[in-house]
Amino acid sequence: MPNALCAQRETPLRFKQLALAGALLSACTPPSQNNPAKPVASTAPANFEILVMDTDLKPLKQVDVQFWHPLYDSLKRQTDADGRSELTGLKTSTSYQVKLTGPNLIPQQRSVWLPAGKALRLRFFLEHQHTELKGQILDTQQQPIKGAVVQLGSHSAETDASGQISLPLTQAQSQITSLKVFKQGYAPAELSNGQICYLNPLEEPKRIRFAPETRPLGMSPESFIKATAKLRAASQLETLDWTAENALDPNRDTLWLASPAQALSAERQQDLESFVTAGGKLIVSGEWAGFGDQNPTAVQALLAGFGLALGGDSLHQNTSLTIRQFPEQHVLVKDLKQLELYQSASVKTLREPAKLLAYSPADGWRIASEGGQGVLASNLVGQGKVLLIGDSSLWLDTDSDGDGLSNFEEADNAKLWKNALDW
After folding, report:
1. Under CATH, which number does the domain 4-32+204-422 receive?
2. Of 75, 205, 328, 364, which is most buried, counting CB atoms within 10 Å of its CB?
């Protein structure tokens, strides 16, 4: 899509409406703006089957398998002696959260996309739990530190609001007596099983940085600077810090990559992955259907390494998308009741411990499909954290519903920004 937004000085809302209208006209049955067509509910194939095994490929019986979605009916089944179970009645063209639990097994949760008209057989592999690593993380003032990350191999976990951490261990891992603990703004430390770990604050303040590939809503970097005025004021930032010439510091930096319009080189991707795994925080926000010249390749190749994905679709209502579904008890969506934005691309999780944190409304729609898709997701990668959002406009000065308030000021958008900085 050409960068008409800057060239003709039209509002982002106007161009999003025009682009959306073009997309709808290409559909077989375009809905009316005042009376949008309701998507037709569908069900999963009758022979939808799951198979659960351990890492030695032995079938696991009596494993509880739950397919869960905040807007639709959830189903719970148990595997038989062959580790198998069948589920029917689930909606297709939808991502479900699959939760697997069983006696002395390490629980597993992940997203599964159910395509329409296809027979599926999904395989899950669970590890046997031998013991558990527990502890609490406090600061030097004896206050609990939430969101501190403990890494064990390829698996990461974070402390809860009380600073507690509980990490299941396999028999091969049972000899581990201590693990590294990381939290931005603090010096790394070591946690011993059953003990309290104290983190010492660093002197250098945390920073918000913005990637040079950023072009949300097709904006130039100069336009983006103007469109983030309220965000910078709320963060007490006087200027934007671009990363073109400055190295990222995982101990203090949060990098925002907003709908990049240029592909990321292999070297750039590796640098960002190294930054995150070393403890850095990365925020990636996309655009629906490639709006504003967003480069899908630039986003997907990077996100795949972080266990996340961004759809090329469009989730929307009439003029502004209202998000009210926040089913996960996570610090990122703490106290959130509503978000306002333009349309959004769907987001998906590919591996643990990634979580879908917010969903589009049931009365919204996805061009010719139904609502209830993920719009907000997070993951822990190494010692770092990644937040993925389906649209960039929620933190800009733009006004998606035309009520005189910028998206950043609307609903709980600013609160989400603060949660992301504190995470």
Report:
1. 3.40.50.880
2. 364
